[in-house]
Amino acid sequence: MGKTSSAVNIAASLAQHGLNVLVIDNDPQGNASTALGVDHHSGVSSVYDVLIEDVPMSEVVKSCPDFESLLCVPSTTDLAGAEVELVSLSHREDRLKAALAQYAKFRERKGLPRLDYVFIDCPPSLGLLTVNAFVCANEVLIPIQCEYYALEGLSQLLKSIGLIQAHLNPSLEISTILLTMFDGRTRLATQVAEDVRNHFAQQTLAVAIPRSVRVSEAPSYGQTVITYDPSSSGAQAYLEAAREIAQRATTK
Ligand SMILES: Nc1ncnc2c1ncn2[C@@H]1O[C@H](COP(=O)(O)OP(=O)(O)OP(=O)(O)O)[C@@H](O)[C@H]1O
Ligand SMILES: [Mg+2]
């Protein structure tokens, strides 16, 4: 939980600082497209066309209305079928990776700026759409909700990532853990946060995203919380998370 909110709000924070950022909405629910204010009704060209019909990503990418340097590859409900349709296609695990590499070359040819960050928002299931994201990515960001014993739910995900590392993408790295829905007044949240920091000392960002109603309201206005209510605790925390992530990249 917190994948889409984290992807769109961190992407928006980085774009607000002038970085060139792409969000690939790889979830049939289309929540990232909604939050970024990008049209994704049925019939719009989308990541489905990229994955299944070999349409170049450059033909489906849209700019987000609120941020000049933020781009989005939208998702439509068609994508639900892709999970099954991918099975019979060649290179079914690395279609997203190939499409993104081709898009990066396209940008270079056209003299467009290099993308600084690409975020791929994944569906909740660990099917072929998520596998495509893991094969495409170098890093995984895992948001962990501080509301129940979160580490237990993590074992299946870690196992899947281990399999991907072993068989499909040895350079994949769990680089970032982000604590979300944090309420420092509850003992449970404090306990979960402490356990996560003990387990993932290097990966866990110092900032935790608080439970904030503004974060959950923003998507119904087609916005990220960064424009919807920039002074809210949720927006401030996401800006800080983005700052930490950008800082790490420069010190690596
Ligand atoms: N910090 C927060 N404070 C309050 N509500 C939040 C916060 N973060 C996320 N939410 C809300 O919790 C719900 C789930 O969050 P989100 O959509 O980011 O999770 P997800 O992992 O993408 O879910 P899914 O697996 O369904 O795609 C949403 O309604 C969202 O608005
Ligand atoms: Mg989501």
Explain this structure:
The protein has 252 residues and is α/β, with parallel strands linked by helices. Strands 2-3-1-4 form a 4-stranded mixed sheet. It has a two-stranded parallel sheet with strand order 5-6. α1 crosses α11 and α5 packs across α6. The protein is globular, with a radius of gyration of 17 Å. The two termini are 28 Å apart. Bound molecules: adenosine-5'-triphosphate and magnesium ion (MG).
Helix proportion of residues, in percent?
40-55%
Give the biggest sheet: 4 strands, mixed
**SSE order, one letter for each helix or strand:** HEHHEEHHEHEHEHHHH
Helix count?
11
Tally of strands: 6
**Average pLDDT across residues?**
96
SSE-based structural type: alpha/beta
User: How would you sum up the global shape?
Assistant: globular
Radius of gyration: 17 Å
Terminal residue distance? 28 Å
Bound molecules: adenosine-5'-triphosphate, magnesium ion
How do the strands line up in the largest sheet? Answer: 2-3-1-4
**Strand residue percentage:** 5-15%
The low-pLDDT segments are none
Which terms would index this structure?
two-stranded parallel ribbon, binds adenosine-5'-triphosphate, 252 residues, binds magnesium ion, 11 helices
Summarize the topology:
Blueprint: H1 3-16, E1 21-25, H2 31-35, H3 47-53, E2 62-63, E3 70-73, H4 79-85, H5 95-109, E4 117-121, H6 128-136, E5 139-145, H7 150-167, E6 173-180, H8 187-199, H9 213-217, H10 225-228, H11 233-251
Parallel strand pairs: 1-3, 1-4, 5-6
Antiparallel strand pairs: 2-3
Bound molecules: adenosine-5'-triphosphate and magnesium ion.
